[in-house]
Task: structure prediction
Amino acid sequence: MIVIVDERELVTNGYNSLFDREGVACAGFRSTEFGEWVSSAPDEDLRSVRAFLIGDCNEGSISPRQLRDRTKAPVIALSEQNNLENTLKLFESGVDDVIRKPVHIREILARISAIRRRAQEDTGFTQIGAMRIFMDGRDPEIDGEPMPLPRRERRILEYLASNSGRRVTKTQVFNAIYGVFDEEVEENVVESHISKLRKKLRERLGHDPIDSKRFLGYRLIV
Result:
């Protein structure tokens, strides 16, 4: 899930629509609402956040350094001012990157992936036997051949891979793929997505790489 903070509802709604087209959940806040949510949100909800995008907010209302007390997700400033002084000021506040608008949504996702790769010192993909799972939106590969997947199934596979074999609950998967605040979709949709994903992986790999335990959740067998 991507969280964007901006005082303009039109902006947050616009990003929500753009990210949804890429199969990425998004939640929008005004700065006052965001502060209340961060201070009270369960750790499980914050772990589902892939990155924070900070847009037009009241000065001093968002502290990237304080955010890091609760989450390691990248903090990126979206700037409408094309000048060096403003860019330096944003970096001094503690953000991980500054992106000048207008910007294509795929560039934002690419920058988020790059920051996370540097932080985790990984190669941008996870190799599990014959399966290579990318973290930048590309379809996975089996024995070097692409395996096309619907965007939700691809994101679930990426999320399982990003947890390095640790077990994640159905709620965690749902929050990461659909967002914490999506009330229009039932959480049980995760079971349907994973069932279809497991069938496709079994057909290509000859075995099921996803281990599931009732009430405990799912993990990739690494």
